[in-house]
């Protein structure tokens, strides 16, 4: 039996690059999301990759500035988490409160506690978990 060579499919970026305008919109939306989640400034800064306190203060004042690739991806994951919660909970307040509640699926920790470990992979894992819970995968 002879093996046949298969033609490959060229690799393509799964997600297009986040533009500067989209990054600015993500930043403004992230500020509003963190207010809805009732995060402290310290918690918000950790979720944004240990953002400097002065930078976070400028963001809240509306002065966003330049946003690097890592931060764009973090905010995209946070929006994915928010979207997943909105699908799971009809009442937005329940979704906002859920992130602080202990969860057996996370060994008794809350979703926020997991995300506050600070790694981008923690945000990605939470987004994937929520997508799986709602049956998106």
What is the residue-mean pLDDT, rounded to a whole number? 91
Q: How much of the sequence is in beta strands? A: under 5%
**Helix proportion range:** 55-70%
Say how many strands there are: 0
Termini separation comes to 37 Å
Low-confidence stretches: none
Summarize the main sheet.
none
Protein structure class: mainly alpha
Count of alpha/pi helices: 7
Characterise this structure.
It is a single chain. With 137 residues, this protein is an all-alpha fold. Helices cover 58% and strands 0% of the residues. The chain contains seven helices and no strands. It has helices at residues 20-36, 41-47, 53-61, 69-88, 92-98, 111-115, 120-133. Helix 1 (20-36) crosses helix 4 and helix 4 runs parallel beside helix 7. It is globular and about 65 Å long. The termini are far apart. The mean pLDDT is 91.
Keywords:
137 residues, mainly alpha, 7 helices
Task: Write the topology of this structure.
Layout: H1 20-36, H2 41-47, H3 53-61, H4 69-88, H5 92-98, H6 111-115, H7 120-133
Short account of what is shown:
Helix content is 58%, strand content 0%. It is mainly alpha-helical.
């Amino acid at each position: 039996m002879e093996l046949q060579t298969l033609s490959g499919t060229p690799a393509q970026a799964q997600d297009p690059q986040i533009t500067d305008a989209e990054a600015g919109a993500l930043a403004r939306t992230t500020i509003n999301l963190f207010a809805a989640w009732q995060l402290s400034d310290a918690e918000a800064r950790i979720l944004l990759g240990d953002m400097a306190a002065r930078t976070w203060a400028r963001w809240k004042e509306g002065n966003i500035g330049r946003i690097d690739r890592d931060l764009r991806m973090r905010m995209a994951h946070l929006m994915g988490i928010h979207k997943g919660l909105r699908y799971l909970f009809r009442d937005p307040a329940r979704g906002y409160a859920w992130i602080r509640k202990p969860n057996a699926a996370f060994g008794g920790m809350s979703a926020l506690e997991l995300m506050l470990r600070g790694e981008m992979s923690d945000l990605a894992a939470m987004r994937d978990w929520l997508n799986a819970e709602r049956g998106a995968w």
